[in-house]
Amino acid sequence: MKLLITGGAGFIGSNFLHYMRKAHPAYTLLNADALTYAGNLTNLEGIESVPDGSYRFVQGDIRDRAAMEPLFQAGVDAVINFAAESHVDRSIVQPDIFVTTNIVGTQTLLELARAYKVDKFVQISTDEVYGTLGAAGLFSETTPLSPNSPYSASKASADLLVRAYHETYGMNVNITRCSNNYGPYQFPEKLIPLMIAQALQDKPLPVYGDGLNVRDWLYVEDHCSAIDLVLHGGAPGEIYNIGGRNERTNLQVVATILEALGKPASLIRHVPDRLGHDRRYAIDADKIRKELGWQPQFPYERGIRATIEWYAGHAEWMERIATGTYRSMSAGGGSNDNKELEQT
Description:
Layout: E1 2-6, H1 11-23, E2 28-33, E3 55-59, H2 65-73, E4 78-81, H3 88-93, H4 95-115, E5 120-126, H5 150-169, E6 173-178, E7 180-182, H6 191-200, E8 205-208, E9 214-219, H7 220-233, E10 239-242, E11 247-249, H8 250-261, E12 268-271, H9 286-292, H10 300-312, H11 315-323, H12 325-329
């Protein structure tokens, strides 16, 4: 197969490329990424040097049809759309970028996939489109969409477009909605890498509100294996929720990081809560387990320890982001704009 993977220089996209290179070495992988602030080509070291031409990177924005069309003209069997603006805090400050990238960009890809008769289109979405849960219950694929941030609203809108292209044009599409991912290469504006980076430097760890917001955590490699199964076996038009049933409060996550690094709890600093902060997410992943046989391989305790060890052992990768030098290495240009970030 020849796969077009959009957003492949980001966190989940780059992990997916590493996964697919190992799982399907005969596949041709075409990676298109705009290299915005979260795009980092150093995430792909080891893949970009493949000598047989089975991997190719193209810098391009999914909103730009003229930039994307030549990739489709060359022929692709499937599109896996990771490309998105994904940081909730940024969406609150600058929602327009989320609307154009996540909605208009997805529609541009859909239209090209339809025009060039691509066999499969997989939209990588999020459990945040469902809104928030109370103390009990799980999100299923039939849970009504009820997004509470500009980010999640833009992703829900994109999902509806993907569904519409299936219903109207008969396109073979799937939508995956995953719980919070963690693991290597995650941009350190997100909770886990940010807390690790701060703790390693004995700096305060900013925790929103009371720290009792609950997320269902999934190691990124388990997410990649689920997407692989959906790509190859997902029924046309179906949605698949992906989650690990690893619910933890933010404070529990932070406490695990501090304990693993031998740092004191006194580093925790409670800061004003985010606007519209969802209280709890939790995924019912029975459908993908039963229909496609997916099983996560990384229990939370194993995954979080592996993640802490990865960041602790990749100080240079973290330093490149802190100083902004990764931007020039990724040919994206621009200055470091991460000083104000707190967490997700």
